[in-house]
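Example 184.
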Amino acid sequence: MDAADMGADLEKVLISADEIRDKLAELAARVDEDYAGKDVLLLGVLKGAALVMSDFVRALHVPAQMDWMAISSYGSGTKSSGVVRIVKDLDTDITGRHVLIVEDIIDSGLTLSWLVANLSSRGAASVEILTLLRKPEAAKVHVDVRYTGFEIPNEFVVGYGLDFAERYRGLPFVGTLAPHVYRS
Ligand code: XMP
Ligand code: MG
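Predicted structure in complex with magnesium ion:
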């Protein structure tokens, strides 16, 4: 599916497929350098990070394992509350492991700050964050993010893993929705 197929639902393409590919290659080169000689455990947060993970891991050269968590944040509609429930936990014992969280987007930061604390309490050797997108204007708590793809305005975005009511995750780019889609 491309922007034309989305017709009137899509307002604009914010980040193209080419820009995403180039950025992930750039971040992978930094991670290769920073984790040289170490085994890294990539932790994807379902479902949004699935596309970032699959492209990022293929751009990496250091040995990497993958594991997944599904977490749900209690909150209304599109806002997270920071009160988090684990829906699917890791299969891996992360004691002594170098964990790199792979995320699609950081909005308020509440979900991630909970996750970092949770993983650190399990005895990980290190916990760092890679996120494709970040909305600086929406930040409610400070989160140390080592690898950021793009800072974006405080607008609701879809595509490349991100959904609106489970739709649009398969788009190869990140776009904004026309207001009529989420207001109706
Ligand atoms: P917080 O606020 O805890 O939330 O940083 C991060 C989670 O909220 C979702 N989220 C979005 N999903 N378009 C989406 O499709 C967006 O613009 C958006 N902003 C936040 C997402 O699940 C993310 O992991
Ligand atoms: Mg997410």
